[in-house]
Batch of 3 targets.
Target 1
Amino acid sequence: MENWIGVGIWIVLGAVVGLSMKFLVKRPEAQPGHDVLLAVLGAFGAVIGGMLGVGLFHFYDPVALSLGGMISAVLLAALLTWIYRWGLRTLI
């Protein structure tokens, strides 16, 4: 049960990081919307990053609520949403 709670925390943390990227990466020509997409992209990145972090840092005792899982979840969620925000600027 503890691992499912950790994965849920990763999802919420990733959605918050994804939505905060909207305010960190400013775009003057930004169109309204993209909030749901940023939240989903952040949550996806957090789950993948959290799994990678737990696998790399806590291989013999995999617990989702570990420091390595949380840090890598935040980092990958921020990376994916930053690439999305930065990439749209170059396409427009």
Target 2
Amino acid sequence: MSENSTSRIPPPSKHQLALMIWVAVFPTLTVLNLTVGPELKNLPVVLRTFVLATVAVPIVIYGLMSHLHRIRARLISSRTSP
């Protein structure tokens, strides 16, 4: 996809962004809970949540959201192509 075609893609609406964030956050937290949850089970809930959020947020922001934005751009481009 060329730079020109992606620059015409409007930013996501609040609803689209909320869905994209949910699609990234839910599986990330599920995997983290399954993999490191047992090691964190004895921590107080606030500390456990802090640890999970500290790991999950960078994964979502730097790893997953860029891919979801690209997928969204491809979907929009394919719908507007002749």
Target 3
Amino acid sequence: MTTQRQELITLINTAYQNVQTAKFTAVRAQLGQFSKDLSAGEDEIKIMLGIRNTLLQADLSLTLKNRIAGLPVEYQVLFETIDPALKKIDSQVIDRYTHYGFVPLKFGSTVKYP
């Protein structure tokens, strides 16, 4: 998983540096934190779930069907890298992560709760 961790850090840093749009300021801040957490040795699954949640909520003006396609290319590449990895994870493992502030739903969307 070390190669996957390094690839993920590289993709996050690329997306952080290349997307400078004011519209995505909150997303950039979260991506910076995800990169720090990954470098510090945090759980990759937790980080990937957080990234997916962040990217799906990055531009709520888009319809759910076009939510990822309407984002900058760097964000699309990041999402397309982590989404297949998350689909392979057992649903029981994902259930363990629901206490992190969001609940994964069908079709890759999430609902945030306090």
